Amino acid sequence: MASTIDALPIARRWYQECRTLHKTCKRSPKSAIPTRLIDISGNEPCLRLADELGSEVEYATLSHCWGSLKFTRLTKSTFESFRKRIPPEALTKTFKNAIFIAQYFGFRFLWIDSLFILQDSMEDWSKESTLMSEVYGECDLNIAATSAKDGSEGCFFPRERSWRCQVSPTSQTEQIYDCYPYSTLEPYVDRLSKRAWVLQERCLSQRTVHFANNQLYWECCGIVASEIYPNGYPLSIARDKFLYQKRQLSRSSWPKLVEMYSGGLTTMSSDRLVAIGGLARVIYSKSQDEYIAGFWKKGLEGQLLWQSHGLNRRIDPYSAPTWSWASLQGGVSFHDWHKNENALSRMCTFRVHDIQMQYVSDNPFGQVRTGILRLRCSHLASGVIQRGPLFVSIGNYDFNIGRHIAHDFHISFDCIEEEERGGEDEEETWFIHVHVLPIWTDNSAGLLLRPTGRKRGHYERIGAYHTSELSTPAIEDANLVALEWDHHFAEVSSDSNGNKEYFIDLV
Ligand SMILES: [Zn+2]
């Protein structure tokens, strides 16, 4: 039976060409090496400590899904014996395959999280897990066990010999076409991407080789390639749709990263922000813009207009404030992220006046305890959303505001339970009271809020809307600021000219 292992020579060629030919993949000397590495040069692998090694050690890393498989891990009691020899019961099939691959590529050292972080020490875990972004960022090759649901499946998979073929459509021409299934353009990453940390490992490492169940894939700054396109994907194929073209991380890559990250996650885990914190830290080091619970301070107003994909749930236990995408379990996308920041200041109906963040540790890229955004608003309207006559066909709503009705009101609810959204029965009358905070002065998009009831002027986000039908007179008609209904606001004060200012708190 043929196997994906047959393609190792191609993967080694990708690696060698990247090291020798790709100018974009040249790196400055390493700034750090991991605290511990596994030495795979001898007959049996063993643990080595950083101070036993030089500063220019070349090493590979492994991206893998732990799954529920039981195996011996590095603990305080196994530490000393691991230094002499890592026993076979600590090596899953995936680890053994990764050692074989690393040796085949010529590496003497490999890094695997479960063998290098003391699994029974919270202190070691919190120290080493914040260094993980450096471990992957400085590695020479990241080996991704992309299709293995746990350590028992390994990196290699059997496959048919005839998974691609050549055909000649007519007998009159000599033209021959290569044929392959469309699905083989991308690795099946669903299993691996369910682990929150994987995106960070994939984006920070300089080179990734994916060991998928159908073939091998390559990602570096120079090319993305696969066995079908071993010299790189042609321009006619939208490469970013199938593989991740590595590039310098910057603030402008953030919405794409969050979309990739949130789209793969399905668990109720509160480490939502922790596992992307390493990427945020790298971007922060270049931009010096302040990072706030999954967003950037500059132009924060416009970033708040993210949209949830379909039915979502709020993570419990608490993972982030409701205004952050990290409070939800599943995928989000960003609307208008790229509106330029000068335009933003002219077009936005509110300002972030104050930000109060509390973190679980002293790491501002880590887990959040609470987060309050105090907004200075010029428009905050209250109204009633109900299903409109067009709902059945295109799923949009009516918004009753003052004496007006805006039809064509498109809503993405964050996590409202189905019965609260009116359930499946589209004939049933259904309505919900909301506060609307338009983001843009033309009212075309904004946030749906609801008072928490816990404190005056405290609101939680329940969704986002966009519409072409919400007129300025309609908003003005129900504008709580213009009506001076002060009890809807957390604070009402006067500016230096004596004009009243209205504040709400998003929590
Ligand atoms: Zn390269």
Task: Report on the biggest sheet.
Answer: 8 strands, mixed
Mean pLDDT: 86
**Spans of at least 5 consecutive residues with low confidence:** none
- Oligomeric category: single chain
Proportion of residues in helical segments: 10-25%
Overall 3D shape: globular
Bound molecules: zinc ion
Strand order of the largest sheet: 2-1-4-3-5-8-9-10
Name the structural class: alpha+beta
InterPro entries: HET
Domain Heterokaryon incompatibility: 59-201
Protein name: HET-domain-containing protein
Pfam family, one: HET
Structure description:
This protein has helices at about 10-20, 80-85, 95-105, 115, 120-135, 190-195, 200-205, 240, 255-265, 275-285, 300-305, 340-345, 390-395, 470-475; strands at about 35-40, 45-50, 60-65, 110, 140-145, 165, 175-180, 210, 215-220, 225, 290, 295, 305-310, 330-335, 350-360, 370-375, 380-385, 395-400, 405-415, 430-440, 445-450, 460-465, 490-495, 500-505. With about 500 residues, it is an alpha+beta fold. It has 2 domains: about 5-240, no CATH class; about 250-505, no CATH class. Helix 5 packs parallel to helix 7. The protein is globular. The structure holds zinc ion (ZN).
Task: Pick out its properties.
alpha+beta, six-stranded antiparallel β-barrel, globular, binds zinc ion, HET-domain-containing protein, HET
Brief summary of the model shown:
The chain has 507 residues and is an alpha+beta fold.
Tell me the layout of helices and strands.
Blueprint: H1 8-21, E1 36-39, E2 46-49, E3 59-63, H2 79-84, H3 93-104, E4 109-111, H4 113-116, H5 122-137, E5 141-144, E6 165-167, E7 177-179, H6 190-193, H7 198-204, E8 208-211, E9 216-219, E10 224-226, H8 239-242, H9 254-264, H10 277-287, E11 291-292, E12 295-296, H11 300-303, E13 306-308, E14 332-334, H12 341-347, E15 350-359, E16 368-377, E17 381-387, H13 391-394, E18 397-401, E19 404-413, E20 431-438, E21 445-451, E22 458-467, H14 472-477, E23 491-494, E24 500-506
Parallel strand pairs: 3-4, 3-5, 5-8, 22-24
Antiparallel strand pairs: 1-2, 1-4, 6-7, 8-9, 9-10, 11-12, 13-14, 15-16, 16-24, 17-18, 17-20, 18-19, 19-22, 20-21, 21-22, 23-24
The structure holds zinc ion.
